[in-house]
Fold:
Amino acid sequence: YHPSTAYKHEIIHYNPQVHTYTFEQSLLNDIERAMEEDELYLVYQPKVCPVTRKIKSFEALLRWNHSVEGPLSPAKFIPILEENGKMFDVTDWVIHKACKQISEWLETGKCTWHIAVNIPGVYVTSSRFKRTLLENTAKYDIDTKYLELEITETSVVSNIENAIRAMEDIRASGFTFALDDFGTGVSSLSYLKKLPISTIKIDKSFIDGVPNSRKDSSIIQAIISLCQSLDFNIVIEGVEVKEQVDFLTSMAERPLIQGYYFSKPLPAADVISFAEVFKNEKDSF
Ligand code: C2E
Ligand code: MG
Ligand code: MG
Ligand code: MG
Structure:
Protein backbone atom coordinates (compact mmCIF):
# COMPACT_ATOMS: atom_id res chain seq x y z
CA TYR A 1 0.00 0.00 0.00
CA HIS A 2 1.40 3.37 -1.02
CA PRO A 3 -0.30 6.41 0.54
CA SER A 4 0.17 8.40 -2.69
CA THR A 5 -1.96 5.94 -4.65
CA ALA A 6 -4.76 5.59 -2.09
CA TYR A 7 -8.03 7.24 -3.01
CA LYS A 8 -8.72 9.90 -0.41
CA HIS A 9 -12.03 8.41 0.81
CA GLU A 10 -10.73 4.88 0.90
CA ILE A 11 -10.73 3.31 4.33
CA ILE A 12 -7.54 1.48 5.11
CA HIS A 13 -8.21 -1.24 7.66
CA TYR A 14 -5.49 -1.80 10.23
CA ASN A 15 -4.40 -5.37 10.08
CA PRO A 16 -3.02 -6.38 13.50
CA GLN A 17 -1.44 -9.51 12.02
CA VAL A 18 0.97 -7.42 9.97
CA HIS A 19 2.24 -5.67 13.08
CA THR A 20 2.32 -8.89 15.12
CA TYR A 21 4.44 -10.52 12.47
CA THR A 22 7.07 -7.82 12.39
CA PHE A 23 7.02 -7.35 16.16
CA GLU A 24 7.50 -11.09 16.66
CA GLN A 25 10.22 -11.24 14.06
CA SER A 26 12.11 -8.37 15.56
CA LEU A 27 12.00 -9.94 19.02
CA LEU A 28 13.15 -13.31 17.70
CA ASN A 29 15.95 -11.74 15.68
CA ASP A 30 17.14 -9.62 18.57
CA ILE A 31 16.88 -11.91 21.57
CA GLU A 32 20.44 -13.24 21.46
CA ARG A 33 22.00 -9.82 21.12
CA ALA A 34 19.66 -8.54 23.83
CA MET A 35 21.04 -11.11 26.26
CA GLU A 36 24.65 -10.38 25.34
CA GLU A 37 24.33 -6.62 25.51
CA ASP A 38 22.14 -6.40 28.61
CA GLU A 39 19.16 -5.01 26.75
CA LEU A 40 17.54 -7.83 28.66
CA TYR A 41 18.00 -7.41 32.39
CA LEU A 42 16.53 -8.40 35.73
CA VAL A 43 14.77 -6.29 38.33
CA TYR A 44 14.18 -7.51 41.87
CA GLN A 45 11.07 -7.38 44.03
CA PRO A 46 11.25 -8.25 47.75
CA LYS A 47 9.04 -10.73 49.60
CA VAL A 48 8.95 -9.47 53.16
CA CYS A 49 7.46 -10.26 56.53
CA PRO A 50 5.93 -7.06 57.98
CA VAL A 51 5.93 -8.58 61.49
CA THR A 52 9.54 -9.73 61.80
CA ARG A 53 10.89 -7.12 59.33
CA LYS A 54 12.75 -9.89 57.54
CA ILE A 55 13.25 -10.10 53.81
CA LYS A 56 12.72 -13.67 52.69
CA SER A 57 13.87 -13.23 49.12
CA PHE A 58 13.99 -11.04 46.07
CA GLU A 59 12.17 -12.30 42.98
CA ALA A 60 14.08 -11.73 39.75
CA LEU A 61 11.78 -10.36 37.03
CA LEU A 62 12.75 -9.94 33.38
CA ARG A 63 12.73 -6.63 31.56
CA TRP A 64 13.62 -5.87 27.95
CA ASN A 65 14.69 -2.42 26.92
CA HIS A 66 14.35 -3.07 23.20
CA SER A 67 16.36 -0.80 20.91
CA VAL A 68 13.43 -0.21 18.51
CA GLU A 69 10.26 -1.19 20.41
CA GLY A 70 11.30 0.51 23.66
CA PRO A 71 10.75 -0.95 27.16
CA LEU A 72 8.75 -4.18 27.02
CA SER A 73 6.96 -5.96 29.85
CA PRO A 74 7.38 -9.72 30.21
CA ALA A 75 3.69 -10.21 29.44
CA LYS A 76 4.45 -8.92 25.93
CA PHE A 77 7.62 -10.79 25.09
CA ILE A 78 7.67 -14.01 27.14
CA PRO A 79 4.72 -15.66 25.33
CA ILE A 80 6.40 -14.97 21.98
CA LEU A 81 9.75 -16.31 23.14
CA GLU A 82 8.01 -19.31 24.66
CA GLU A 83 6.09 -20.16 21.47
CA ASN A 84 9.31 -20.05 19.52
CA GLY A 85 11.42 -22.21 21.80
CA LYS A 86 13.57 -19.32 23.01
CA MET A 87 12.82 -19.67 26.73
CA PHE A 88 15.39 -22.43 27.14
CA ASP A 89 18.28 -20.09 26.43
CA VAL A 90 16.60 -17.19 28.20
CA THR A 91 16.05 -19.25 31.36
CA ASP A 92 19.70 -20.39 31.29
CA TRP A 93 20.58 -16.70 31.09
CA VAL A 94 18.23 -15.78 33.97
CA ILE A 95 19.67 -18.49 36.24
CA HIS A 96 23.20 -17.38 35.38
CA LYS A 97 22.44 -13.72 36.14
CA ALA A 98 20.59 -14.57 39.35
CA CYS A 99 23.49 -16.68 40.65
CA LYS A 100 25.99 -13.96 39.78
CA GLN A 101 23.82 -11.38 41.50
CA ILE A 102 23.26 -13.30 44.73
CA SER A 103 26.99 -14.04 44.94
CA GLU A 104 27.66 -10.29 44.70
CA TRP A 105 25.09 -9.55 47.40
CA LEU A 106 26.53 -12.28 49.63
CA GLU A 107 30.00 -10.77 49.25
CA THR A 108 28.80 -7.51 50.79
CA GLY A 109 28.10 -9.42 54.02
CA LYS A 110 24.68 -7.77 54.19
CA CYS A 111 22.62 -10.32 52.31
CA THR A 112 20.25 -12.32 54.49
CA TRP A 113 17.81 -13.22 51.73
CA HIS A 114 17.40 -15.72 48.90
CA ILE A 115 16.77 -15.09 45.21
CA ALA A 116 13.75 -16.43 43.32
CA VAL A 117 13.58 -17.13 39.59
CA ASN A 118 10.58 -17.96 37.40
CA ILE A 119 10.87 -21.25 35.56
CA PRO A 120 8.67 -21.95 32.52
CA GLY A 121 6.97 -25.36 32.27
CA VAL A 122 8.95 -26.57 29.27
CA TYR A 123 12.18 -25.93 31.15
CA VAL A 124 11.14 -27.90 34.25
CA THR A 125 11.34 -31.24 32.45
CA SER A 126 14.35 -30.42 30.29
CA SER A 127 17.72 -31.93 31.15
CA ARG A 128 19.35 -28.51 31.23
CA PHE A 129 17.35 -27.39 34.29
CA LYS A 130 19.40 -29.27 36.88
CA ARG A 131 22.61 -28.92 34.89
CA THR A 132 22.31 -25.13 34.61
CA LEU A 133 21.47 -24.79 38.31
CA LEU A 134 24.45 -26.88 39.42
CA GLU A 135 26.87 -25.29 36.94
CA ASN A 136 26.05 -21.77 38.06
CA THR A 137 25.88 -22.39 41.80
CA ALA A 138 29.30 -24.08 41.48
CA LYS A 139 30.71 -21.30 39.27
CA TYR A 140 29.71 -18.60 41.75
CA ASP A 141 30.30 -20.80 44.78
CA ILE A 142 26.88 -20.30 46.36
CA ASP A 143 24.89 -22.71 48.47
CA THR A 144 21.98 -24.19 46.51
CA LYS A 145 19.57 -23.13 49.27
CA TYR A 146 19.85 -19.53 48.03
CA LEU A 147 17.89 -20.36 44.87
CA GLU A 148 14.13 -20.54 44.98
CA LEU A 149 12.39 -21.73 41.81
CA GLU A 150 8.91 -20.46 40.99
CA ILE A 151 6.72 -22.65 38.85
CA THR A 152 3.01 -22.44 38.00
CA GLU A 153 0.51 -25.27 38.08
CA THR A 154 -0.66 -24.42 34.59
CA SER A 155 2.82 -24.81 33.16
CA VAL A 156 3.51 -28.27 34.61
CA VAL A 157 0.05 -29.83 34.48
CA SER A 158 0.42 -31.32 30.98
CA ASN A 159 3.52 -33.26 31.99
CA ILE A 160 2.89 -33.62 35.68
CA GLU A 161 4.59 -36.94 36.45
CA ASN A 162 7.83 -35.95 34.72
CA ALA A 163 7.71 -32.51 36.31
CA ILE A 164 7.38 -34.00 39.78
CA ARG A 165 10.29 -36.36 39.14
CA ALA A 166 12.52 -33.54 37.90
CA MET A 167 11.56 -31.28 40.80
CA GLU A 168 12.20 -33.96 43.41
CA ASP A 169 15.63 -34.57 41.94
CA ILE A 170 16.44 -30.86 41.98
CA ARG A 171 15.09 -30.42 45.48
CA ALA A 172 17.40 -33.21 46.64
CA SER A 173 20.30 -30.90 45.69
CA GLY A 174 19.02 -28.25 48.12
CA PHE A 175 17.06 -25.92 45.83
CA THR A 176 13.51 -25.01 46.87
CA PHE A 177 10.31 -24.62 44.89
CA ALA A 178 7.43 -22.17 45.15
CA LEU A 179 4.06 -22.58 43.45
CA ASP A 180 3.36 -19.26 41.71
CA ASP A 181 -0.04 -17.67 40.92
CA PHE A 182 -1.88 -20.15 43.15
CA GLY A 183 -5.60 -20.01 42.59
CA THR A 184 -5.55 -19.06 38.92
CA GLY A 185 -4.78 -22.45 37.37
CA VAL A 186 -6.38 -25.79 37.93
CA SER A 187 -5.90 -25.39 41.69
CA SER A 188 -6.47 -29.02 42.26
CA LEU A 189 -5.64 -29.72 45.87
CA SER A 190 -4.01 -32.95 44.77
CA TYR A 191 -1.12 -30.87 43.38
CA LEU A 192 -0.49 -29.42 46.81
CA LYS A 193 -0.02 -32.96 47.99
CA LYS A 194 2.05 -34.17 45.05
CA LEU A 195 4.36 -31.31 44.09
CA PRO A 196 7.60 -31.00 46.09
CA ILE A 197 7.07 -27.34 46.96
CA SER A 198 7.79 -25.43 50.15
CA THR A 199 6.04 -22.14 49.37
CA ILE A 200 2.70 -21.17 47.89
CA LYS A 201 2.23 -17.76 46.32
CA ILE A 202 -1.40 -16.64 46.36
CA ASP A 203 -2.24 -14.75 43.19
CA LYS A 204 -2.89 -11.02 43.18
CA SER A 205 -6.45 -11.49 41.91
CA PHE A 206 -7.50 -12.72 45.38
CA ILE A 207 -5.98 -9.85 47.33
CA ASP A 208 -7.38 -7.11 45.05
CA GLY A 209 -10.79 -7.22 46.75
CA VAL A 210 -9.43 -7.40 50.30
CA PRO A 211 -10.61 -6.21 52.77
CA ASN A 212 -13.77 -4.82 51.11
CA SER A 213 -14.98 -7.98 49.44
CA ARG A 214 -16.15 -10.56 51.97
CA LYS A 215 -15.77 -13.34 49.40
CA ASP A 216 -12.16 -12.51 48.56
CA SER A 217 -11.33 -12.10 52.25
CA SER A 218 -12.83 -15.50 53.05
CA ILE A 219 -10.97 -17.17 50.19
CA ILE A 220 -7.64 -15.69 51.32
CA GLN A 221 -8.37 -16.69 54.90
CA ALA A 222 -9.20 -20.25 53.85
CA ILE A 223 -6.09 -20.60 51.65
CA ILE A 224 -3.87 -19.23 54.42
CA SER A 225 -5.21 -21.63 57.02
CA LEU A 226 -4.96 -24.55 54.62
CA CYS A 227 -1.35 -23.67 53.77
CA GLN A 228 -0.45 -23.21 57.42
CA SER A 229 -1.82 -26.56 58.43
CA LEU A 230 0.07 -28.19 55.55
CA ASP A 231 3.29 -26.42 56.68
CA PHE A 232 3.77 -24.41 53.51
CA ASN A 233 5.19 -20.91 53.56
CA ILE A 234 2.68 -18.47 52.13
CA VAL A 235 3.43 -15.42 50.03
CA ILE A 236 0.64 -13.03 49.10
CA GLU A 237 1.32 -11.29 45.78
CA GLY A 238 0.16 -7.87 44.67
CA VAL A 239 -0.37 -6.19 48.04
CA GLU A 240 -0.78 -2.48 47.36
CA VAL A 241 -2.42 -0.83 50.39
CA LYS A 242 -2.00 -0.76 54.16
CA GLU A 243 -5.49 -2.20 54.80
CA GLN A 244 -4.41 -5.36 52.99
CA VAL A 245 -1.24 -5.62 55.10
CA ASP A 246 -3.29 -5.18 58.29
CA PHE A 247 -5.80 -7.78 57.18
CA LEU A 248 -3.04 -10.29 56.40
CA THR A 249 -1.20 -9.74 59.69
CA SER A 250 -4.44 -10.32 61.57
CA MET A 251 -4.93 -13.52 59.59
CA ALA A 252 -1.49 -15.12 59.67
CA GLU A 253 1.21 -15.03 62.30
CA ARG A 254 4.06 -14.23 59.92
CA PRO A 255 2.66 -13.53 56.47
CA LEU A 256 5.07 -12.98 53.60
CA ILE A 257 4.07 -10.15 51.36
CA GLN A 258 5.16 -9.14 47.87
CA GLY A 259 3.68 -6.04 46.39
CA TYR A 260 3.93 -2.38 45.51
CA TYR A 261 3.02 -1.42 49.10
CA PHE A 262 6.52 -2.40 50.20
CA SER A 263 8.34 -2.11 46.90
CA LYS A 264 8.04 -2.24 43.15
CA PRO A 265 10.65 -4.39 41.40
CA LEU A 266 13.99 -2.62 41.89
CA PRO A 267 17.17 -2.27 39.87
CA ALA A 268 19.90 -4.49 41.37
CA ALA A 269 21.84 -1.44 42.54
CA ASP A 270 18.98 -0.35 44.83
CA VAL A 271 18.50 -3.66 46.63
CA ILE A 272 21.01 -3.27 49.47
CA SER A 273 19.76 0.20 50.37
CA PHE A 274 16.14 -0.99 50.29
CA ALA A 275 17.09 -3.76 52.74
CA GLU A 276 18.67 -1.26 55.11
CA VAL A 277 15.73 1.13 55.03
CA PHE A 278 13.25 -1.70 55.46
CA LYS A 279 15.05 -3.04 58.51
CA ASN A 280 15.64 0.29 60.21
CA GLU A 281 12.76 2.56 59.39
CA LYS A 282 9.68 0.72 60.53
CA ASP A 283 7.59 3.83 60.50
CA SER A 284 8.08 4.52 56.83
CA PHE A 285 5.96 1.50 55.95
P1 C2E B 1 4.81 -13.38 38.49
O1 C2E B 1 5.95 -14.33 38.59
O2 C2E B 1 3.54 -13.76 39.16
O3 C2E B 1 5.39 -12.01 39.05
C1 C2E B 1 4.61 -11.07 39.74
C2 C2E B 1 4.19 -9.94 38.84
O4 C2E B 1 3.30 -9.08 39.57
C3 C2E B 1 5.35 -9.04 38.38
O5 C2E B 1 4.98 -8.53 37.10
C4 C2E B 1 5.30 -7.92 39.40
O6 C2E B 1 5.91 -6.74 38.96
C5 C2E B 1 3.81 -7.77 39.57
N1 C2E B 1 3.45 -7.15 40.85
C6 C2E B 1 4.02 -7.37 42.05
N2 C2E B 1 3.44 -6.66 43.02
C7 C2E B 1 2.45 -5.96 42.42
C8 C2E B 1 1.45 -5.03 42.92
O7 C2E B 1 1.39 -4.70 44.09
N3 C2E B 1 0.59 -4.52 42.01
C9 C2E B 1 0.63 -4.86 40.69
N4 C2E B 1 -0.24 -4.31 39.85
N5 C2E B 1 1.56 -5.74 40.18
C10 C2E B 1 2.45 -6.27 41.05
P2 C2E B 1 5.98 -8.55 35.87
O8 C2E B 1 7.38 -8.23 36.33
O9 C2E B 1 5.36 -7.73 34.81
O10 C2E B 1 5.98 -10.08 35.46
C11 C2E B 1 4.82 -10.68 34.95
C12 C2E B 1 5.00 -12.16 34.80
O11 C2E B 1 5.96 -12.46 33.80
C13 C2E B 1 5.52 -12.86 36.06
O12 C2E B 1 4.47 -13.08 36.95
C14 C2E B 1 6.08 -14.13 35.46
O13 C2E B 1 5.07 -15.07 35.22
C15 C2E B 1 6.59 -13.65 34.13
N6 C2E B 1 8.06 -13.44 34.25
C16 C2E B 1 8.74 -12.36 34.67
N7 C2E B 1 10.06 -12.58 34.66
C17 C2E B 1 10.23 -13.85 34.21
C18 C2E B 1 11.36 -14.70 33.97
O14 C2E B 1 12.54 -14.35 34.20
N8 C2E B 1 11.11 -15.96 33.48
C19 C2E B 1 9.84 -16.40 33.24
N9 C2E B 1 9.70 -17.64 32.77
N10 C2E B 1 8.77 -15.66 33.48
C20 C2E B 1 8.94 -14.39 33.97
MG1 MG C 1 6.88 -15.38 40.00
MG1 MG D 1 3.25 -14.71 40.81
MG1 MG E 1 0.78 -13.46 39.59
In short: Residues 79 and 87 are 9 Å apart (CA to CA). Residues 45, 61-62, 73-75, 78, 94, 118, 120, 150, 180-181, 237-240, 258-260, 265 surround C2E (ligand 1) (CB under 6 Å). The longest helix spans residues 16-36. The two ends are 56 Å apart (CA to CA).
